Predict the structure.
Amino acid sequence: MTNANSIVQLRNISRRFGRIQALDNIDLDISPGKIIGLLGANGAGKSTLLRHIIGLYLPDTGKCTTFGTDAARLAPKELARIGYVHQEGELLGWMSVKQLIRYVSAYYSNWNRQLEEKYIDDFDISIKDRVGALSPGQRQKLAILLAIAFEPELLILDEPASALDPIARSRFLDLLLHIIQDEKRTIIISSHILSDVEKVIDHTLIMRKGKILRDCSFDALREEFVKVTLTSLNGDLPADLPFENIVDCQRNNTKAVLTVQKYSQDQLHDKAKAINCDIEIRPLSLEEIYKAVAG
């Protein structure tokens, strides 16, 4: 995703925690105007990567620049352009919700009171409650509000919806789609709820063991893999099916369900015809694609 206008650049970034290689020689460019899905198992390096972008972690080797500034030296001017929500975020528990909102808003001249009020109404937030007494879901809603109400150019969301109920998650996804209408804004979302992520993202980053396995548009990733169902029209299927790049295969004598990679629709139909089979082709869900890529 190399771009001269990248708002984030990572070059040869590596980071260890004891014996654990959290990031392994990462190169990455993040362009404005995208919703990026950052995918990976626990321990893949997702949170470590995000924390390097905002200067919370510093690399052992390599360099990370955010908005043209070394992430280790981000000043209030740059930080005021970044919203950050993470699952383990701490809020000032002794304040009321209203007090905390007013406290945080005082730091941002561009705080959008209209957006704040709409969010409070849409997500049913009680501003009189004490922050420390909120449920995990309510705390997460509040953290999201504090990160978006000043309309940051870069919004980083690390497991932002893990404590939200299905209705709140749906509203949250609608909110992201509204935010990204401004082509100058960029959203990076890391989540294990892949069925939600695939509804909003247009770019994918897939990580495993500190490395980036995929950095491409979501459309390109969906075109790379397909699910194929073959049904023999006459007798048994051949022992060796005429497909390369088979990621997964479940079969019996007369039927096979394959996940295959890098085939056009015409190529698949030609191969099915060659072995006298009916064929059904469907795209994979993001969860299925992730399993095919990351294993």
